[in-house]
Every structure is written in structure tokens, then in C-alpha cells.
Amino acid sequence: MDKTVFFPEGGGQYADTGILGGVHVLDAQEKDGIIYHYTDGALTPGEIVKGEIDWEKRFESMQQHSGEHIISGIVHGRFGYNNVGFHLGADYCTMDFDGPITKEQLKEIEEEANRIVYRNLNIEILYPTKEELKDLTYRSKIEIEGQVRIVNIPGVDICACCAPHVDRTGEIGNIKLVDMVSYKGGERITMLSGSRALADHQQKEESVKKISALLCAKDTEVAEAVEKLKEEQLDLKNQVSALKQKLLAYQAKEIDVTPELVKVFDSELSGNEPRELMNILLERGAKICAIFAGNDEEGYRYVIGSHSEDVRVISKKLNEAFQGRGAKGVEKAFQAFRVRLGVHAVEKGQARVAQMAGHGLVGRDHEFLDQAVGVGFRHPLPLDQAALGAADQTHLRDLFLHFGVFLPQTQQPVVAGGSDVDGL
Questions:
Q1: CB–CB of 357/345 below 8 Å?
Q2: Positions in the chain short of pLDDT 70
Q3: What pLDDT, in 10s, does the model give residues 110-122?
Q4: C or N terminus of the chain, fewer CB within 10 Å?
Q5: How far apart are CA 139 and CA 98, in angstroms?
Q6: Per-residue confidence (pLDDT) for residue 322, from 0 to 100
Q7: Cα–Cα distance for residue pair 377/370, rounded to 1 Å
Q8: Which candidate, 374, 379, 383, 337, places its Cα nearest to that of 357?
């Protein structure tokens, strides 16, 4: 075509869509000075056609792009930062700046931007000559060949830009900076302007009103109401946890611990309760204890352990039979273990604990535990527990028990056992 009203994708802005000669224009791209229109139907060569863009979409994009120029101009004028990345999407607009901005400064930038909108400044489109361009200071991300198009917002920003803009800043409506994250040593700011800012405000207002009604609180007090609710929920959670511990203790008293292998099947157990129940039964004198929990919908898991017997053989057979995945979260727990006991060991001069704490994760879970202890589970642990405080002894025992490695109060053989299996 010899001319078109459809803006092709470029400069960070998406292409126009609309109607051309009775067919829909889905996209427009520019290549080597030619604008290609992608349609959902064919046009007759040589035919004179009428084009009509989707004006609401175009106007919305102009609001965003003109808003971006205002923000970029303010940031450049105030901090000297450059806009090194701009993306205008279908529902959001982002700008990347090559320097740090605080939350307080972001708020000030937003307030200044909206004052510029309210002033309803004329946005000028200039086509300076090469001679005029030499004396003109303007923002530009790239070297431009040929005629340069300048978008000037007087006293705010002057920038080389090929995209369409609103005629006056008042047409932007308002500018809202909704997010900012650190990005490549600078900041990425997400902006909504005009109709997008209004839609965002309406959606958030609706959410606040719903929360307000649910909590019987004023719109301006929902944050405090949610915080109070969260505190109450945490308090109830702690109460439930304490009651569950009591229930486990009562449950354990009703279980016979005299058999060679104590087996408990309880679908109601959740979280760490199977392991906690196992530990209680072992403390009561169970030689070997296995706890099975779960259901058909969520899968099954088990823990098995002993203070005196090596249960790894049983655990391995169960894993093989049920295709279990073994203990989970080993690395995360032992990272915490290294930080906690590693530092403590240096302070107490416990070199052996420091060696254990600094040991890297290698091989399978049980292999790592073997190497971390250093001598294998059938030998005494080379650690003078008496040199540790009571709290650290408890922490050490609990940590080892979490993986089925039972650390007695005296220098007795330390044995391994225990697995968690999901989806049996």
C-alpha cells in the first residue's frame, strides 16, 4: 500500500489492529521500510481500500507511551539515569532504569508525573534538520539514520520516538506506578496509565470492599483487621499443635510396645506426627517401631526406626517394594545443621563436630549420613555430648532423629533407619 494508518510494532510498542478493506488486520510489522499487514483474509491487488484502526486499543497504548516519556523524563532529569529498556504489553508497561530508586523516591516521581498530567501540557512532534539536531539535547537508546522524529514534552522530556502519542498530557488521565523490582543493577518499574490505571483501581477497590465486608471492618482499616486475623490464626494453630501433641501422648500410652516390631496404621496422622509418634513409642521402650499414615487420595508414607537395631535393611526393602522415594529435605536440614552446630563446635572446640558440620552432601541420603558421622552407624559417635549444652544436645538428637539416626544419651551404638514414602 502507498500509505497506512496502522502503526507497526516498534519502539517497545505493539502494533495497531483493526479493519482494512473488510478484513481484520491482526498485526503490522515494518521491514526495510515496508509495512506488512497481517490479515485474516485476502485483498484484491490494485483495489482502493479503507482502513480503520481499533481506536480504543490505540488510545490506550498512546496513554501508556506518553506516560512512559513523562516518567523517563523525570527520572533522567532528577537522577541522570537512562531508560535502558521499555516494554508496552497488552496489560502492563515496564521501564528499566540503570540506577537505584527508593520506594520514597518512587512515590515522589509518581506525584510529580501526575502534576504534569494535570497541567495539560501540549506534546510536540518535531522533525528537526541535521543542523538543528546537532544543537538539540535529547534522549535516544539507539543511533538513528535518516530523519529523526522528536517527541517533546516542554520542560519534562525530549526524546527520539517513532510511536504515536496523545496531543496533551491531560489525555493520559492519571499515572500509577504499581511495582518496582531490582533489575540488572537498576530498577524495573511497572506503570499503568489512563484507562488501565482506572481499571486497576476499580479491581483493587472491589477486593478491599469484599475483604471489608468479610472482616466487618472499614475500608481504611482492612490491613489492621487482616493482621489481627493472622495473629489469631497463628495463636489457634499453636493451640491445635499443642492439643495434637497431647493427643499423640495419649495415643502412645494405648499402644503395646512389647512386640519385636511395633506397627501403627493411622490415616489421620499428618505432617511430622508419624515421626513424633514413633519417637514417643521408642522412648517408651519399643525395640523397632513403624508408623504408616496417609490415604488413597493423597498417597501413603511411613517412618521406621529403632534406638538399638539397624533398620536400614527393612527400610530399603520397603522402599523397593513400594517404590518409595526415600527421605526428603536432607540437604536443607543439614545446611541448617552445618550453620547451627558448626559454629557452636568452633566455639566449644569440638573439632569433630566441625568436621561433620562442614561435610558436603554426596551420594545417597544414608551414604551421606554415614560419611557425615565419619565412622558408620554401627560404631560409637565420636562426639563428647557432655561438652554440649542441653539445648544443643536436644537439637542434635532431634535433627538426627528426623532422619532415623538415633543418638542415645550415652555412648551407645548409633544406628540408622527411617524413610518417608509418598504415593505407595
A1: yes
A2: 141-142, 322-424
A3: 999 999 999 999 9
A4: N
A5: 14
A6: 65
A7: 6
A8: 337
The long-range contacts involving 241-246, CB below 8 angstroms and separated by at least 24 positions, are 244/273, 245/276
Amino acid residing at 9: E
Q: How far is CA 126 from CA 5, 86, 169, in A?
A: 19, 22, 17
Q: d(Cα 368, Cα 359) in Å, to the nearest integer?
A: 9
pLDDT tens sequence across 151-187: 999 999 999 998 899 999 999 999 999 999 999 999 9
Take residue 102 and report the three cell numbers written for it: 527508593
Inter-residue contact 180 to 190 (CB < 8 Å): yes
Q: What is the pLDDT of residue 315?
A: 78
137 torsion bin: left (phi>0), alpha (psi -120 to 50), beta (else): beta
Judge if pTM exceeds 0.85.
Answer: no
Residue 71 and residue 81 in contact, taking contact as beta carbons nearer than 8 Å: no
